[in-house]
Specification:
Blueprint (H helix, E strand, L loop, with lengths): L2 H47 L2 E5 L6 H16 L3 E6 L17 E2 L9 E7 L14 E11 L10 E4 L6 H12 L6 H14 L10 H11 L5 H10 L3 H11 L3 E3 L4 E6 L1 H7 L12 H4 L5 E9 L2 E8 L5 H7 L3 E3 L2 E7 L2 H12 L6
Parallel strand pairs: 1-2, 1-4, 2-3, 4-5, 5-6, 8-9
Antiparallel strand pairs: 7-8, 9-10, 10-12, 11-12
Helix pairs in contact: 1-3, 2-3, 2-4, 3-4, 4-5, 4-6, 7-8
The protein binds manganese (II) ion.
Length: about 350
């Protein structure tokens, strides 16, 4: 065989192999799309088949948790269904501009004295994040679990988990446009948009894909005012938030040649600043903004001996894995877990874990 023929044959072999791989990838993608659409269909059927729902999101709800809960509530109402939206604890007030916000029931203050057998859980990665809500879920309840966290534990009878979705409201938008498009109205659109805006950090994070901006554009057609929502959900801060930041920044420390930045918030800081738990929101985003920082961490002393750790990363550290290892969860670039102990112990523990992860 001449060298030229051999060369051509080897070349052809690799070209065919690459084409095969590409076809396989495309088939896998098609399968994923089909599987997703199939799950949306099942979710729609679950909604049609039931009449009396409990809708819940995770403890310490964020914009996506609240937006998803309210969008689901509006959808169910417009279908003529009964719905209770519950949360354990107060919801951050900056989302009170959303229609229906005042209807969210705080289970730490109000007891419902009943249980529910049709449950829709939105933006919750793990049942542990239900908190006290577990007490109003019937033993034989059917849970529809809609979420975008890659760490989701599939606790529902139906699990619509789409980790490529930027927010849980993106999945709800897909569900509504595919199966309930007449029900998409202004209150629903505002709730969906809020989840999308907050979980993409105002359309700045890496999860801001074409589908995100397509969805945002479509929602503007339903009366969403992007400047107003950005103002309420992202821009406006309370005076006590800034006051707390003054205290918190004094604890800022750098490690591993500036690749790790840490901020501590103690109960004392909170008291001195007159801050509520709401006021801590947003502080976790500061350490990561600093040039050269790969991992930014915020340690909040939530109660005596209980520290909430928020992790943010920039390029190569998967903080979802790190959080999972510590009993928490989240996304590759934003996650969290709870540490039992004091602030200093929590900080040292994380720094130890980062020893092998931070690249020299
Ligand atoms: Mn989310």
């Amino acid at each position: 065989m001449s060298t030229v023929r051999l060369f051509i044959q080897v070349g052809l072999f690799f070209i065919t192999k690459r084409a095969e791989i590409r076809l396989k990838e495309r088939a896998m993608n098609n399968n994923n799309v089909e599987a997703y659409q199939h799950m949306l269909e099942k979710a729609a059927q679950f909604i049609k088949d039931n009449d009396d729902f409990l809708v819940l999101a995770h403890l310490n709800p964020d914009g996506d948790a609240i937006g998803s809960s309210l969008a689901t509530m509006h959808l169910l109402r417009s279908l003529g269904k009964k719905v209770h939206v519950v949360n354990e604890g107060e919801c951050p007030k900056r989302f009170s501009f959303l229609p229906g916000f005042e209807e969210i029931i705080d289970l730490s203050k109000i007891s419902l004295n009943r249980s529910f057998s049709a449950v829709i859980s939105v933006d919750v990665a793990d049942e542990k994040r239900f908190g006290k809500i577990g007490s109003v879920i019937a033993d034989d309840a059917q849970i529809l679990n809609i979420d975008h966290h890659p760490t989701n534990t599939n606790f529902g009878v139906l699990n619509v988990i789409q980790p490529t979705a930027a927010s849980t409201t993106e999945i709800l938008f897909d569900l509504i446009t595919a199966h309930f498009s007449p029900q998409l109205d202004s209150p629903t659109a505002n709730a969906l948009y809020t989840g999308l805006l907050t979980d993409t950090g105002g359309f700045r994070y890496a999860n801001t894909k074409q589908s995100v901006l397509d969805m945002a554009a479509k929602l503007l057609g339903y009366g969403v005012q992007p400047d107003q929502i950005a103002d309420y959900a992202l821009e406006t801060v309370t005076a006590s938030h800034i006051e707390l930041l003054k205290y918190a920044l004094q604890s800022l420390s750098f490690h591993y040649e500036g690749q790790v930045a840490i901020i501590l918030v103690s109960q004392e800081d909170m008291k001195a600043a007159g801050a509520s738990k709401d006021d801590v929101d947003g502080i976790s985003s500061y350490p990561r903004k600093i040039e050269g920082v790969e991992v930014g961490a915020l340690f909040k002393e939530w109660s005596e001996g209980e520290v909430k750790v928020s992790l943010r990363s920039n390029k190569y550290v998967d903080v979802a894995l790190l959080a999972q290892r510590n009993g928490g969860g989240g996304h590759a670039k934003a996650s969290g877990y709870t540490f039992n102990g004091n602030l200093q112990a929590a900080k040292e523990d994380l720094l130890n874990q980062l020893k092998d992860i931070i690249q020299k």
